[in-house]
Amino acid sequence: MNVLLINPSYPQTFWSFNKVLKLTGKKALLPPLGLLTVAALLPQTWNFRLLDLVFNRISEKDWEFADLLIVTGMAVQHKGILETIREGKRRGKIVLVGGPWAFHFPEDALQTGADLVVVGEAETTVSEILECLEQGVSGKIIRSNVMADMERSPTPRFDLLDVDSYVDMAVQFSRGCPFKCEFCDITLMLGRKVRTKTPSQILNELNLLYELGWRRTVFFVDDNFIGHVMSAKHLLTELIAWNDSHGSPMEFYTQASVNLASHEQVLDLMSKASLNRVFLGIETPDEDSLRLTGKKQNVAADLDQACRQINEAGIEIIAGCIIGFDNEKQGADQRLIEFASRNRIPEMFGTLLQAGPGTELWQRLEREDRLTSSDYEHLSNQTALINFTPTRPLKQIVDEFINFYDTLYDRKFFLERALQCLMIMRVPPKPRPFQMPYMFEVKTVLTMMFRHGILYSSRWVFWKGLFTLLLKNPARLKNFFTYCVRLEHYSEYSATIGRVLREQLGALDEPA
Questions:
Q1: Sign of CA dihedral 332, 382, 297, 101
Q2: Which of helix, strand or coil describes residue 445?
Q3: Residue 107 has what pLDDT?
Q4: H or E element: which one contains 92?
Q5: What whole-number distance in Å separates Cα of residue 509 and Cα of residue 486?
Q6: Structurally, how many domains does the chain consist of?
Q7: Which domain holds residue 139?
């Protein structure tokens, strides 16, 4: 069978990094790891062709090649998923749909024309998928509540990628999260029991990427890398040895809960393994909101101290945060801005609270008759209004959210936080050996020096940061330029946030 693996495109989001891609000459941030895993699970006598529609188009030759289309994606990709289903059926192809969007909206996929819709992990549904394909079954939802044994999950088909098209690569060590936050759908999809691959599985994946010529950053896509702390320690120990034996070719980043700060040994191992950046679920410094939403691990922690400990260990933080919790007091934006300032966190990923289908938050709001229609055009990319009736005026919440982005991604304020963050980070315990920079890296540095050092009004902050780091912490100079590159995206995206949300608010014609 000839299979087209389709990753639909998506609109601009916090994570799309459009300007970063232009500056680096890359085409997308991350590859579609789920599709690569599915390809490894299906019969290897089949012919696979991956099309990432973030930067590709389906050609007539691709359509002629395909017997089967496999489409997957998140809620933010729903438009592209639906378009691909319709076009695939118009051309008489078999269409199979899976992934997070299909998990929540399987009936929508069927009504659009999909032959098979998978709700559950591919490892536990692949035998039924093959049976349905063999028998020509159509119009069926394949469901599985069984959680996959990650130790039996195959090495993804990285060979299907053009690795040079991507900024970073992706691997997955674990699935599931031991916590149960009211607004989160991770435990709904992947359960609270954390399942992990063995270190040897991960090293095999890294070996394959290494053989394909990859020498840059790898993202551990785990929703909570330390969900199973002992397994994480075991992996990190093996990862240190692997990186050392290969001349430290890769750096890593991941996602974790704030209790990471209480595991001093894990922090040390992460630093030694070059796992030096983490997305941290802060949500809000307001304890009442944390309690209401079931974020017990944050209530139990001193969030300021946790951020300081993680930074001092040599790990950068991206802080995830939310505005719009029930009974939230006015001024949520200022409290988050002050939190970012005193904890020296440059990157704050903010979103208006959204009730995801099936979550405990969704169920509670449904009981309270407070749910409103979801705008799938903007859902999951931070440009959607709250999809329920909040406990304070919607305009007040939206104004605070826009101000949150405008203030935090002001060039001067951002670079000041970046410098402060890098200055308190310890020197890497084992500096990476010198590697000749890629041509795109040289070009990017020169572009940043021109823009931030000459063109922008924040130029004096840039030069102060550059010379301060040269004199006091030169090992972090590369990080400073990386922050400058990301700021190009954040400045543009904060303007998008304000424009799109005000348009939606105006359409509602809500009184001030």
A1: positive
A2: helix
A3: 95
A4: none
A5: 35
A6: 1
A7: 2-143
DSSP-assigned letter for residue 392 = S
Within a 10 A sphere around the Cβ of 219, how many other Cβ atoms?
A: 21
The residue written with tokens 């009211």 in the block is: 182
Q: What is the pLDDT of residues 361-419, one digit of tens each?
A: 999 999 999 998 765 555 555 678 899 999 999 999 999 999 999 999 999 999 999 99
Residue pair 176/191 in contact by the 8 Å Cβ criterion: yes
Q: For 70-100, what is each residue's pLDDT tens digit?
A: 999 988 888 899 999 999 999 999 999 999 9
Question: 173 is written with which tokens?
Answer: 């060590």
Say if 317 falls within a structural domain.
no
Rounded to a whole number of angstroms, the distance between the first and last alpha carbons of the chain is: 59
Cβ–Cβ under 8 Å, residues 241 and 207: no
Distance (Å, rounded) from C-alpha 345 to C-alpha 420?
9
Contacts of 36 (CB under 8 A, 6+ apart): 5, 50, 156, 157, 158, 160, 161
Rg of the chain taking only CA atoms, in angstroms: 23
Residues 6+ apart with CB under 8 A from 368: none
Q: Find out whether 211 and 169 touch, Cβ atoms under 8 Å.
A: no
Residue 464 lies inside a defined structural domain of this protein? no
CB burial of residue 120 (10 Å; 0-12, 13-18, 19+)? buried
Are 55 and 28 in contact by the 8 Å Cβ rule? The answer is yes
Beta-sheet strand order (sheet of 140-143): 47-52, 2-7, 68-72, 94-98, 116-119, 140-143
Residues 6+ apart with CB under 8 A from 487: 409, 411, 414, 415, 452
50 falls within a domain:
yes
Q: Which residue has the tokens 């950053």?
A: 217
Instruction: Look up the CATH number of the domain holding residue 85.
Output: 3.40.50.280
Interatomic CA distance for residues 61 and 372, integer angstroms: 43
CB neighbourhood size of 179 (10 A)? 19
DSSP class of 434: P
Q: Name the residue with tokens 């997305």.
A: 279
Instruction: Answer yes or no: is 30 within a domain.
Output: yes
